[in-house]
TrEMBL record:
Residues 44-214 form the FAD-binding PCMH-type domain. Belongs to the oxygen-dependent FAD-linked oxidoreductase family. Keywords: FAD, Flavoprotein, Oxidoreductase. The keyword Oxidoreductase applies. It comes from the Bacteria. This is FAD-binding protein. One of its GO terms (molecular function) is FAD binding. The lineage of its organism: Bacteria, Bacillati, Actinomycetota, Actinomycetes, Pseudonocardiales. The keyword Flavoprotein applies.
Length: 424
């Protein structure tokens, strides 16, 4: 039997007498309030009956057995950077994975980490040894379990796939409380169910992740465009030719109602071998007078959002509602659909700190069965990362309704949803 630590649970609990029997759980008010919320703040906070704070796989087995026995919803959660309540456990047990965050062995080509570890921790541990995970999310303070449960996409995806495509092995606990190790060759069905599985097929406890050699520096080019068609055409060229290690793009609303576009192309290098600019930029149709180029350390580039996030936290918008929409567009419909959607979208629809992200994804690089992409060889990630005004439920509802309409529109062209509403 797993060893259960003593965590006092108020007695009697008003909700579920069975909870009293289990000492791994806390019903502390602050813990329940924290577990009820997420980054999105688009749903009503859903308080769990209790929060479990496991520090071992045995703890997780015990909690899962308990939840199954008492027919309680059990939902793993970590950094709660979901935007539609995906990590909430209404009237169930929230399994807070943040205490399981050890970085274990690091060798040249792999690192073994607990699922509650953040990608920032992993990078800090591997970079001094000259290695890094091939795909890092734009924001690094997301947990391994959290992003492996959705996919984990970034500007490196055009070369290396998703984070879920770079997992070598997973240790997990299945809903009946059984501990299982899985990989592409060992229990492959479970391996495929867990990656992109949104926490529904078991709890990821530990992951063995691929590492590649890391450069010391990054040259970050920002190429600017006035026209959607040339922006998309250059993105396709850059994706196909693989000129940059990192390739993303944004659409930016202008005060006069039009949109401009930019491509972020980043080439990593180790000094003094600076990348050859001619080779990287030749033949592109960007507005060359507006080209920006900056050199950063490799870590500085990967951690590029840190200063903005600190500012947004201090000024407040980080805590405002975030009705985000993350879709994949099939290449054949991308230009027309984006033109239609953007023509009806203005700065007030995405909010002051909102961002619209557009970049290409080659289907051939993605091998995670649970992440559905359009059937075309190339898809475009299309993310409207809205920031709603605080204390304005009408504005929030309008943005959420708009998201549902746009999702339908994109799906009618053969598009798919990357991060959608939970289906439980
Ligand atoms: C600022 C910001 C930037 C982002 N940037 C990117 C990006 O560049 N690329 C990208 O792909 N996504 C990005 N995302 C989305 C993010 O990857 C997902 O929301 C991710 O699920 C959040 O991880 P988390 O640790 O906060 O997980 P949580 O929100 O706590 O949980 C997310 C989901 O994972 C499940 N889960 C958590 N841990 C486990 C586990 N150990 N085992 C099984 N299931 C588990 C939960 O049940 C839930 O369904 C971003 C989000 C934010 C807020």
């Amino acid at each position: 039997m797993p060893h259960l630590r003593r965590v006092p649970v108020p007695d009697p609990t008003p909700w579920h007498p069975a909870l009293n029997q289990h000492d791994l759980l806390t019903t502390d008010d602050a813990a329940l309030t924290e577990a009820a919320d997420d980054f999105g703040r688009t749903t009503t906070p859903a308080r769990p009956l209790a929060v479990a704070r496991p520090t071992s796989a045995d703890d997780i087995s015990a909690i899962l057995r308990f939840a199954t026995k008492h027919d309680l919803l059990m939902v793993p959660q970590a950094e709660r950077h979901s935007t539609a309540g995906q990590a909430q456990a209404p009237n169930g047990i929230a399994l807070d994975m943040r205490g399981l965050n050890t970085i274990h062995d690091i060798t040249d080509d792999r690192v073994v980490v607990d699922a509650g570890a953040r990608w920032s921790q992993i990078l800090d541990a591997t970079l001094p040894l000259g290695a890094a995970p091939p795909v890092l999310t734009d924001y690094l303070d997301l947990s391994v379990g959290g992003t492996l449960s959705v996919g984990g996409i970034s500007g490196a995806t055009h070369q290396h796939g998703l984070q879920t495509d770079n997992v070598l092995e997973l240790d997990a606990v299945t809903p009946d409380g059984t501990r299982v190790t899985c990989s592409p060759t060992l229990n492959p069905d479970l391996f495929n169910a867990l990656r992109g599985g949104k926490g529904r097929h078991g709890v990821i406890v530990r992951a063995t992740l691929r590492l590649i050699p890391a450069h010391s520096h990054a040259r970050w080019f920002r190429l600017r465009y006035d026209h959607l068609a040339t922006f998309l055409a250059d993105q396709r060229t850059l994706m196909t030719e693989g000129r940059f290690h990192h390739l993303e793009g944004q659409a930016k609303p202008q005060a006069n109602g039009t949109w401009t576009y930019c491509i972020d192309g980043v080439a990593y290098f180790t000094q003094p071998d600076a990348p050859a600019e001619n080779r990287l930029l030749t033949g592109l149709a960007d507005n060359r007078d507006a080209l920006e180029a900056n050199d950063l350390t490799y870590h500085g580039f990967q951690n590029r959002l840190a200063d903005d996030v600190a500012l947004l936290r201090t000024l407040g918008p980080w805590q405002h509602p975030h009705p985000w929409l993350n879709l994949f567009l099939p290449d054949h419909a991308a230009e027309q659909t984006l033109a239609e959607i953007l023509s009806a979208l203005g700065p007030q629809d995405i909010g002051e700190s909102g961002v619209v992200i557009i970049y290409p994804v080659p289907r051939a690089r993605i091998s995670t069965p649970q992440v559905r992409l359009p059937a075309t060889p190339t898809a475009f990630l299309f993310s409207i990362l809205r920031a709603a005004p605080p204390d304005d439920p009408i504005a929030l509802r309008r943005m959420l309704e708009d998201n549902r309409t746009l999702q339908q529109q994109v799906m009618s062209t053969g598009g798919t949803v990357y991060l959608g509403e939970p289906d439980r």
